[in-house]
Amino acid sequence: MRIANYLMLLAALVLTVSGCSKKQEAGPSSIHGESAKAGAKLAYEHHLRIELQEKDIAPRMASVREACESARFGACNILRIEQSEHDGTLTVRIVPSGVEALSGLASQNGRLAWRETRAEDLADAVNDNAQKLKQLEAYSTQIEQLSQRKDLATNDLIALSHERAQIQVERENLQNVAAQQQRRLDTNLLQLDFSDEAHGHRLGLSLNAWTDELREGIDDALSMLAYGIPFLLLAFPLALGWRWFWRRVTRKSRNSI
Questions:
Q1: What 3-state class would DSSP assign to 245?
Q2: Where are the domains of the chain?
Q3: What is the pTM of this model?
């Protein structure tokens, strides 16, 4: 049973790898931006892996960067740029209406090898931050009412002044969090990974060769298993007979002693 389960796992792995390689071949050359429906608090992120000729990677990244910084397809901000010999990464935050155009520019004359779109639900985080801000404003109102009293001592005035400063700092922090949350809701994060298509092609060939060898290995293992089963069936009763004979001989030897 252990051998059978092991072979089934190997077969499942082969099918999974084959399915993944086929999945990467399909897909449009761009991706649509996403906006949450009314009442929803969803922050969308897109991740694309684009294969180009090595000589085109740097100019393409420069073109995408210029399009973002000039707001050619709508409000856009560069968040991250990385570049090496055979690949590069460009991450931006852009309005949903500009995602398709910018991703189309990035993948022009190239191959979209992989894509992913996901959304993070910010409803709890947004509500929690709004509740904290509401409680802080209520507390601030109480402090202001206390500060209006005429019978306060100097130490009390100093303490209230310190508390006001702390409230202002916390208010600004919560407002910044709210602004960042709203920015994530109003825009889409778009990560563009560029790679050399020749390198990706070699990797694909290696993966295909590996899966072919794995299939051949499984076929050989199954053949050896089928070939060995009759010998196992024959060897099992022989082993039982030999064990019975040996125990009988050793028992007689012990009795004679």
A1: helix
A2: 28-121+187-209, 124-182
A3: 0.64
